[in-house]
Amino acid sequence: MTEKQQVTEESNSINEDVYQLRLFVTGATPNSSRAISNLKQVCETHLKGRYELEIIDVYQQPLIAESEQIIALPMLIKKLPFPERRLIGDMSNTDKLLRGLSITANT
Amino acid sequence: MTNHHHKNKKTKFNYPQIPKTPTGITGLDEITGGGIPTGRPTLICGGAGCGKTLMSLEFIVRGATEFNEPGVFMAFEEKAAELAMNVTSLGFDLVKLQEEKKLKVDYVHIDRSEIEETGEYDLEGLFIRLGYAIDSIGAKRVVLDTVENLFLGLTNQGILRAELRRLFTWLKEKGVTAIITGERGEGNTFTRQGLEEYVSDCVILLDHRVINQISTRRLRILKYRGSLHGTNEYPFLIDEDGIAVLPVTSLNLEKDVSTERVSSGIPALDKMLDNKGFFKGGSVLVSGSAGTGKTSIAACFANEICKQQKRCLYFAFEESPKQIIRNMKSISVNLQQYIDNDSLLFHASRPTLHGLEQHLVAMYKIIKNFKPDAVIIDPITNLVTIGTVSEVKSMLIRLIDFLQEEQITVMFTALSLNSVVNEQTDEGVSSLVDSWLLVRDIEFNGERNRGMYIMKSRGMRHSNQVREFIITDDGIDLVDVYLGPEGVLIGSAREAQRLQEKTGEVLRGNAVNMKDREIDRKRKMLEAKIANLQSEFESAEDELNKISVEEELIKKVSENNRDALTKLRGGDKASSK
What we know:
heterodimer, A: alpha+beta, four-stranded mixed β-sheet, 22% strand, B: Rossmann fold, Rossmann fold
């Protein structure tokens, strides 16, 4: 059901530096595919080794749409570090994505 | 975007009617001729606080409770718990309905400050959510309240517009009857984001105005594709039973009429009305200036209705029921007995208590509950204090319509302010009513009297005479005015004229007597004179007799004397004889 991709090296230790990310997509629509690849690329570039990414297909779990207040898709929720942030779109705007994830360019 | 409604009312086509879904909202289904279009989205728009949310929620709740059509309410403004709390006062138990899977409230939270847009997106999440909610309870009805809030949360207008268009098409495909609410925009648009462009089947406009410190909500069907609908602005209100739109009646004039008659309770008045009284289900207006006895006429009518074992509902806008009962006792109309046996109901309220619409709805509800045969509204004029004449008129039109449909006879009383005969009086209802009685003060000869005449009475022969209207201890009576050589006389003048005639008769009788007596007296006088003369004659005769007797006596005596003298002289004479 859940398409879960663990891309972590050290799992589950709640480190200040570890990013917990959840990406909600809708199957393999162009927006979704682009969002996945764009996000992965940014994470690999800036957060290598210190992020957890969970990719959820809302089609598979329609209930989650209500519980997570999902309207626009694709949507990325940065659970950690605080504050929680929501980003929507295909993640093609790297500047905005980085700002949304509170990642400065030199990190 | 223009209003369109068919003008050809008479011609009937055989095309299937647009399928409609009843909203269950009082009055709205009448205006729309059965409800909103089934399986299509309807737009309800209006300013803040105009009742959009409540109207759409009532649509869902009624669907779930009355029409067995489960519904999804997607709230973009209020949280589910807040919403449930807000409508508890209306008797809507959202929590219970949700537990019974008849209703689903989904609160959509969207906040721009929490969201970063990083590229292309769509609203598929909304579709999934809504689709799931619809499927999970088998919903037939959907409300999106207020979908425009998406524009506050998301910035990409191009995407939003395209997605909304897709949403409405999708709703149609789903076959759900949907209501989309929208906040009224500035300028010429009905909604801020021009939703009316997407929802083209049915648009309902709500409005909330305050005039003279009394707030009025209004509703107008802006358009209804493929269906006849009322085009007016209809007042509506929110009360403890939800929303009620007026009129509570339909658009056509195809009511049943009755030829049955009801007595007015005043025999003399019935006589003026073709000897039978008013038509059952008709409307009667009694107008007149202050103190002309309008309430007394109304009370007599109520009394008569109850006497015939029927029910009467009396709306008192001026006097309290107790006052009316007490006052009517003075003219031998005992209303208390009918209150006791439940055939008469008084409903008194101050006109200023609430707006006209609320009055109308309150009346409507009481009438529905009490099911009277006759309704009295005393007086309608007091309602003008809370609305303009035209508003009152339109309210009364609706009320008369409704009552006629229910075959309830209605009597209005109306106060005409100027004593000058004001034919165009009384909120213009005079043209609506079937019978119009006018009670007038007639000032004449230093006193005030009441004259009554029938201005009109449709469909029956009626007297054109002015009658004098008298209130006595035994009730009301109408008296023919005196028609004499000096014209029409009323009141004490009429009475005086009558008395004068009586006096005349007495006098004439007297005069005849006098003459008789005169003659008698004269005869007696003459007789007395005759007697007098007689006695005079007798006394004269006596006198004459006396003289002759005396003379006789004197003669006798002197003869005797002479004899004696002769004897004395010698007795010769005797011997000489």
